[in-house]
Write a structure and sequence with these properties.
The protein has nine helices and three strands, in the order H-H-H-E-E-E-H-H-H-H-H-H. By secondary structure, it is mostly helical. It has a three-stranded antiparallel sheet with strand order 1-2-3. The longest helix has 16 residues.
Length: 200
């Protein structure tokens, strides 16, 4: 008998860059695969929530600044986030294909090939399917890509205030708690610095 995972809290897991690349490769190179690669790239490199990514419209994208405008983030707060050129090139590939398909500019960036909306349920199922196809043992879900981006930014030494703005948190305190939960760098640095077993 199948049981529901609704309400179950799973441990936080992040995906490595290599694992994300396996997810992207598992998407394939057809029109739907190109769209899904772009969606994953935005979730991963812009650290968007799934609802924020699915709500993006073409008018919210600024290719010159490599930026995305989130109009209704958590708490209905708007913000502008950045995207690196590598991720933008993956997004641009979908935008070019989207235009070739004749999809109306008033439709969501990430839509069906007929211009219809994508659901969060579709993305949840997609992530599970790609994880299996990519041979990834970890639980694959959209929020893991957001966690992974936040973790990578911290490891790269990006200032907490900037990470907070990218994530769309209401305060830096929220970001500190968030990062300590998914990437406790001070704990890891302390434990790595300990000496033991060198004489064995």
């Amino acid at each position: 008998m199948k049981t529901s995972n609704k309400g179950v809290k799973f441990p936080v897991e992040t995906l490595s860059e290599a694992e994300v690349m396996r997810l992207l490769k598992a998407c394939g190179n057809g029109p739907t695969g190109i769209r899904n690669q772009a969606l994953l790239a935005v979730l991963y490199r812009a650290a968007l929530r799934i609802s924020e990514a699915l709500a993006l419209l073409p008018k919210d994208l600024d290719p010159e600044r490599c930026s995305l405008r989130v109009l209704h983030g958590k708490g209905d707060r708007a913000r502008v986030v950045g995207l690196d050129p590598g991720a933008w090139s993956i997004l641009q590939r979908w935008l070019d294909r989207r235009a070739a398909l004749g999809i109306d500019a008033a439709k969501s960036v990430f839509c069906t090939l007929a211009g219809g909306p994508l659901s969060t349920a579709y993305v949840r199922a997609l992530m599970k399917r790609l994880g299996r196809k990519g041979g990834i043992a970890k639980r694959c879900h959209a929020h893991a890509l957001r966690h992974s981006c936040a973790s990578e930014l911290r490891q790269e030494g990006v200032e907490i205030g900037l990470i907070s703005k990218q994530l769309g948190h209401s305060s830096i305190v929220t970001t500190v708690r968030y990062l300590d939960h998914i990437c406790p760098e001070q704990v890891l640095d302390t434990m790595r610095a300990r000496k033991w077993g060198e004489s064995i």
